[in-house]
Sequence to fold (358 residues):
Amino acid sequence: MASRRIRPDRRDPALRLAAFLPYRLNVVAAVVSEGLARRYASQFGIGIPEWRVLATIGEFGRITAGAIGQHARMHKVKVSRAAAGLESRGLVAREANAKDRREAFLALTPAGDALYGRIAPLALAYAAELAAVLPPEDAAALDRILDALLARAGRMDPAPPVPTESGARPRPGTRPASG
Amino acid sequence: MASRRIRPDRRDPALRLAAFLPYRLNVVAAVVSEGLARRYASQFGIGIPEWRVLATIGEFGRITAGAIGQHARMHKVKVSRAAAGLESRGLVAREANAKDRREAFLALTPAGDALYGRIAPLALAYAAELAAVLPPEDAAALDRILDALLARAGRMDPAPPVPTESGARPRPGTRPASG
DNA sequence: AATCGATCGTTACAAACGAAACTATGCCGT
DNA sequence: ACGGCATAGTTTCGTTTGTAACGATCGATT
Fold:
């Protein structure tokens, strides 16, 4: 092993952030989301969680809060709050489920349906405008790639595949670093 | 497939969330980030913003907070807090800039450098493991695609390209829907 | 049918976040 | 040199988010 300099100007960086896939995915996702939100948030006063809930109800019709969470990959608390917000504005209505009174179906009111009918085309246009920079084969590749990455990341072990040496297991009682 | 009546009175959905690019990008980015964070957060007690700052200092050596924000695309408040956290743990040190005493250079301490030296390989291994599901041409395509999408989203107008009819401009004074 | 544990959704509380205000310093024109 | 404005970074404050606890209901077991 070579001798270490005490105060080097700079070594070769071990990692270039600009080329690091998780970082890049986050940046692109953030910029895209932000751009989309600018299109509807300012016009309709609706936030991203509320948009997702609205879109999910618009897609599936009558659906429970739990199912919304599954389809839109949102935490149930977020769904609950977004749904409450939409309900308070008369965009969403609850229908009690007599078969299971713990849950309730959510559905769009006429006003909610009208809003959905206005935002959805905007959103689709945004996505189309975005995808228009990609040659068709790249657009198709992106679909495949995102599927593959999602499946892979979901199956990934919480520890590196190469055993680090001893069986020193990471302590489970540490905070999960949200953000 | 025959027409199953799951939902009673709903037209064809205007938008399928699962196929909607902004949504998909967000989901993939979130799952990937979460998976990566699980690898270092639990072991080293470091969060995502702190990791980004650490990685940026590790990459560039001595760097100001503002430059970190530019390179890592972080808001200056976030950089400030993450840097304060790293400093309080002795991972980062400040060096005053005599030429401009408003700013200060941040650099890794030996402890910070050691931590960087341990996390960076983990992170790179994670990214490599992730990219391993992609055939080489898809991995290359992904690089191109993310660049193109990022550039496009950054240049995108806050309003749809097709004029909606009259010159009814969206009211500028509405909240920007963070999240 | 009484009880126990699981599940749905809301509420409570605390951490994280961003916009704006603020401090300190630098820059520039007069 | 002085006054006004710009910039770097921190702090403050209100909002958003997530974790945990909670009430209500269901299903299974006895």
Q: What stands out?
A: Residues 41 and 47 of chain A are 6 Å apart (CA to CA). Residues 1-10, 164-179 of chain A have pLDDT under 50 and may be disordered. Chain A has six helices and three strands. The helical segments of chain A are 21-44, 48-60, 65-72, 76-88, 110-131, 136-155.
